[in-house]
């Protein structure tokens, strides 16, 4: 017993105060209870309590780590989905930019075509209000589109084709 309790102040020449009835409890105790008395006297019980507290903190830390791993998995899945949505949004924005550019080109070509049609008879030196000799009395001839495609007509047709293509492709609605 002297070897088992060094540093506690107990020894062959040391005095120890033991409460009344404690010796009889020690003598009559079962082996498990005797062990507890000896551990308490040796100071081992405080280390066991520290060990239980440390194990409890380690268990809590493991549970927290598990929760963090679950959250990380969920966020990774959300990140993948959000990256796909970002790709779709970029494609939509690009298509809308292209559509806007083509729409602007079409409006410009239509405006230029209207100006060209309005300026056309004046440039040729004809008056639209003068009756055509083959037309009935007082009727003005209708202007017919030119037989040969002009550069302006080709540009307008190209713009229309581009506009129709952009409408057919249209912005995607995935995101």
Strand content: under 5%
Instruction: Determine Rg (CA atoms, Å).
Output: 49 Å
Number of helices: 4
| Count of extended strands | 0
Structural class: mainly alpha
Mean pLDDT: 75
How far do the termini sit from each other? 77 Å
Q: Describe the sheet with the most strands.
A: none
Could you walk me through the main structural features you see in this protein, from its secondary elements to its overall organization?
The chain is mainly alpha-helical. The protein contains 4 helices and no strands. It has helices at residues 22-28, 31-42, 44-124, 151-169. The chain is rod-shaped. The protein starts with 21 loop residues before the first helix and ends in a 6-residue tail after the last helix.
Question: TL;DR?
Answer:
This protein is mainly α.
Lay out the secondary structure.
Blueprint lengths: L21 H7 L2 H12 L1 H81 L26 H19 L6
Question: Keywords for this structure?
Answer:
175 residues, mainly alpha, 4 helices, rod-shaped, disordered N terminus
